[in-house]
């Protein structure tokens, strides 16, 4: 439902930046895009499924779907800029925009998507100002979270709670926004809207920790990233902060590794991965995912009268996001 | 009128990015800002003066002033990102955000301002969706124009018309938007709104060429930039394209200079400046400024019944922008 809306919006972009946007989404030709190239569309799916929990009115669903496209535009703006900041050369199996077109082009492409996103909330109807505000607030939290995330790099004294607070901003805010928009624009009650926002936030935390696990223990053949890739850049993700906070000899050794600055080879990355495991980083991360998954489910179950099939779809998405292996 | 609104909005920003925004605007402490540090506020001035041409209703003026603040936020987002792309280390006599806080922080600070700008259109009233759209369209043109501007560097075959088209996007679009928003939100007629949009566009072109002149012939003691600074980076600004398009021996020599790639010393910069002058680049640029100034004035004079003092203020601003020497 969302891909054609996004694709349609992108066809109206200026010639000078449309190629970069099309490259990012994997739409190299003017053909209609296939669903597989444009990313998982997790956020738009959340918006639409949430909306469908509260309405089946065609116009309301159109508003909800358009909001899902707005959220995806924000998500993709942030991916393009994040790849510049992190120096990640690949995205979805293709060269990152900056790697293909240069850093200035990637900054401008992200800017364009960010500026156009609120327009997606508009349609034959006028945009709901509350929706515009929610979207802008999510970007503000996302940017602040990304800033905090960058400053966690190589800071062994960061606590697990700090890492969670950063994940809540960097990842949780936009998932919360995705759900909140779906509920708001489908006419849900204030209470139900708040519940869905919290569902999204908690799901976002489970999702981010699952991502952190992949960044350390992910199978290179499935993730497309080197062994222990987050450790190589000395990221302060949740499993690492949990390991460092443990009162173990491995924590002390890991702290020394994190205090170092030179480049990290494969053997050293393996050793560091092993230290995080032995200091309980993996166990604690998995437990935290389960906790947030459960909290997310609780939010859903506390809203009475939701259609069973939509809730089942949301729960199966929750389960998928918390147990990814690539 | 606009600075307190901007300052108020910034005080609500997240701790992790507010220092960068405050640094950019020159508001290092939590004191109320002084007018001198935050830039010239040309765009907001245009919005407010335009609005005052059509209404004196207090609520309408509040909307107009808030829109002026939105335009300034967009302008400042673009300065922060442009400085990253151009590698310019200084802005308004202070270190550029990227130079003080690093490139990731500067990208995120710009993102934050860009995302927050449409919210400024909101108030006790709901944002006018046409205003939101105008602002987003201006950003799209600005980004495409900046992309084109970067690709003009070291392209001696670019024509003067191409350089003008780039200037219309990069600089004209936001000035046109500033004026159009003022007219629209003050309830001007469609015809008058269109005239003011064109006034802003033409003023923007005059302004940009005046800026191009400063970039080549500006007095280093007044501009704070080295002699011939735009020639050192082999920018394809209007005066250069005009010189290259002239059928003179100097044009051929200048083309060879532009085809080179190595770093440019002070003597070479002086020689290149001299070539642009002798090939008629300066004369043609000054003539073009005069032409756009006149066209801008024509737009204003074709709107009947404007208050004389506001028009006088707009014309004096026009004159100031076309004849800057720093």
UniProtKB/TrEMBL annotation, chains A, B:
Keywords: Magnesium, Metal-binding, Transferase. This is Polyprenyl synthetase family protein. Belongs to the FPP/GGPP synthase family. It comes from the Bacteria. CDD domains: Trans_IPPS_HT. The lineage of its organism: Bacteria, Bacillati, Actinomycetota, Actinomycetes, Kitasatosporales. It comes from Streptomyces anandii. It holds the Pfam family polyprenyl_synt. InterPro entries: Isoprenoid_synthase_dom_sf (IPR008949), Polyprenyl_synt (IPR000092), Polyprenyl_synt_CS (IPR033749).
């Amino acid at each position: 439902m969302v891909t054609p809306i996004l694709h349609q919006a992108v066809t109206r972009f200026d010639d000078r930046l449309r190629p970069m946007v099309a490259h990012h989404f994997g739409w190299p030709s003017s053909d209609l895009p296939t669903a597989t190239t444009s990313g998982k569309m997790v956020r738009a799916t959340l918006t639409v499924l949430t909306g469908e929990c509260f309405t089946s009115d065609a116009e309301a669903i159109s508003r909800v779907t358009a909001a899902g496209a707005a959220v995806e535009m924000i998500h993709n703006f942030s991916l393009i800029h994040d790849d510049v900041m992190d120096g990640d050369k690949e995205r979805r199996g293709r060269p990152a925009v900056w790697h293909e077109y240069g850093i200035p082009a990637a900054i401008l492409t992200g800017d364009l998507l960010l500026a156009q996103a609120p327009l997606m909330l508009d349609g034959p109807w006028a945009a709901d100002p509350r929706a515009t505000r929610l979207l802008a607030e999510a970007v503000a939290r996302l940017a602040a979270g990304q800033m905090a995330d960058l400053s966690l790099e190589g800071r062994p004294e960061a606590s697990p709670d700090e890492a969670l607070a950063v994940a809540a901003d960097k990842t949780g805010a936009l998932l919360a926004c995705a759900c909140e928009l779906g509920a708001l624009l489908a006419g849900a009650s204030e209470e139900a809207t708040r519940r869905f926002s919290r569902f999204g936030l908690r799901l976002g935390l489970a999702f981010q920790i699952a991502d952190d696990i992949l960044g350390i223990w992910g199978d290179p053949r499935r993730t497309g990233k080197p062994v222990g890739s987050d450790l190589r850049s000395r990221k302060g993700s949740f499993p690492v902060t949990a390991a460092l906070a443990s009162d173990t000899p491995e924590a002390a050794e890991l702290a020394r590794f994190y205090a170092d600055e030179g480049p990290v080879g494969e053997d050293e990355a393996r050793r560091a991965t092993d230290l995080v495991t032995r200091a309980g980083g993996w166990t604690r991360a998995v437990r935290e995912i389960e906790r947030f998954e459960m909290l997310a489910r609780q939010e859903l179950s506390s809203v009475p009268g939701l259609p069973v099939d939509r809730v089942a779809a949301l729960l199966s998405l929750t389960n998928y996001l918390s147990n990814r292996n690539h």
